[in-house]
Each structure stands twice: as C-alpha cells, then as structure tokens.
Design a protein that fits this description.
Histidine kinase; alpha+beta; Heat Shock Protein 90; single chain; about 350 residues; Sig_transdc_His_kin_internal; 5-stranded mixed sheet
Amino acid sequence: MKFFMKFIFPAIYGLTVYLTIRLLNDSVAQIKFWERPWTLNALEIAISIFIGYVEIFLFTRLLRYFDRQQQVLNIYYGRIVKELGWLILINLALQNLVFTPMAALTDDGLSWGDLADINVIPMLYAVIYYGIARSSQFLNAYVDNRIQLERVTNEQLETELKFLKAQYHPHFLFNAINTVYFQMDEDVDGAKKTLEKFSELLRYQLYDQQQQVPVIQEIDYLNNYVDIQKIRSSTQLALAVEIDDRLQQQRVYPLLFLPLIENAFKYVGGDYQLHIKLALQGNDIILAVSNSLHAMIPVKENGAGIGLENLQRRLQLLYPGKHRFTASRQDHLFIAALQLEITNDAS
C-alpha cells in the first residue's frame, strides 16, 4: 500500500486531473483529442504526471508539517480550514505556473473557459485528496480520543472507589480492636476466636472491589461480621438473620451489603430488634435490613452518615441503572433495602 501511494498514485492523480481538463475543454471547443499531434499529447501527459508527483509530495509534506505543529488528536475546524487553505494555494500556484502557459501556447490559445478549468478542476481534486488522506487519520484520532477519555474516566472512577473503600477501614478497625480489648479480661479463648474472625474480615477487605466475587463469599464475610457484632452487642439484642440457600455462585461486587448491616448495629436501640434478610428474587439479589431505634435519637433518611453515602456513590459507579436503594424511618424502625440486578448468574 505504501509503495502504491508513493510511486503509483501520484501518476494516476496527475493523469486524472489532466484527462478531466482535457475532456471538458475538448467537449466545449469541439476538439478531437486524437487529431492533435501525439508529441504534444505525450508532452502534456508527461508534464501532468510530473506535476502529480510534485503536488502529492508537497501535500504530504504540508500535512506532516501540521502534524508536527499540533498532534492529529487535536482536531478542530480552524485547523481543517487552515490545512485546506494552504493545500488549495499550493495547487493553484502549480496549476497556473504550468498549465496556464501550456494552454496559451497550444490549440486556440487561452480562453476564460480554459482558465476556469485549469483552476477549478485541480482544486476539486485537491479537496477530494485531502478528504481521503485525512479521513482515516481523523477517524483514528477520534477513536483514540474516545479511548483516552474512557481511560481517564476509568482511572478517576477506580481512584474514587479505592478512596471509598479506604473510608470503611478506620471505623471497622476501631470497633473490632475495642471488642477484643474488652474480651481479653474475661474470655481469652473468645478473644482469640474473635481475632481469627477479625483477620478473615481484613483479608476479605483487601480484595479488589472492582472485581466481582461469588455471593457466597460475601455471605461468609457478613456472617463473620455479625458474629463479632453479637459479641459487642447488648444481651437484649433480638437478632434474626435469614439467608436464601439459593445464593451461591451469583457474582457481585464485594462490601456493598456491609454498610446497611453496619448501620443497623450502630443505631439499634429501643426494644433492640434487628432483622437481616438476604434473598434471591428472579435475577435480583435483595438485602433488607431493619432495626428498632431509640425514640429520641434522630436518624437521617436515605443516608445515616458516611457509610450509606459512600454506598450510594459506589452503587452509582458499579451498578449504574441496575440497582435500587431505599432507606427510611417508620415509627421506631429504620428500614433499608438494597436490590441488585444480577445478569451473570453462575449455573
């Protein structure tokens, strides 16, 4: 392809321009091409082919010059107009320098029609050449721009997700260490078991949150978390946990269920009722969490602190248009529900 564009195409370009001018001129002037001296025809054809090589060479150098001045990725109308303007000027200069004297010295001399043909036809071919030469570059530049934009966007989202993940750790670490601290005085074996569960929780939290995991792993994590929270909670706590046995290998992004359960343990009060239900409904996984509240303690609806605010942002990033999250207070109950659309269930 490079050989064709460099050595053959310029000759075809120059010959096409010449034959088009010749055809129009001969049709108007009623001249028969084959009745002209063949030496004159051969000379004009040879000069036209030579001009084709010169024009394509200059056009190529011109476009490379603009590419060096400004990357082709940066496309705007002003640049296109500037490139086209210079290309047309070069074209007009060469055509008038060569073909205008040629027309004046052959046949019936130079006429206004000859002058129009010499200027307009090569200019149209030059514009067509520019469109063909630049179209592939501009298309590639557009695709590269889109890829670059998506890469930057993904990097920003990944950074934000890592930041949101990091915000879970301080509060969780404080509560877990505090639990072990008080256990050490009364139940060393219990403290060791708590530390074991605590280490399993930390190991799970180190997973990349942009990678999905089987929901059964998330359930194991939540069970360990609930076990630690039960140690810390009041003996008055009435805890009910319901988990659908069908939830096994369906894949979800990790640590999306934790904020609702963490929030419930944090605000449970009153008659200390806490209910957790995780179920499969069609292609959706639904987590419903409700906890009783102290009558005098206000709880924000649709977000009780940084945990639920982070959750809503992560849902927007990981499940855009494929989730439903609600949180509200009803009398002395705080009820939160999260529904995730799962489209890649494992068989």
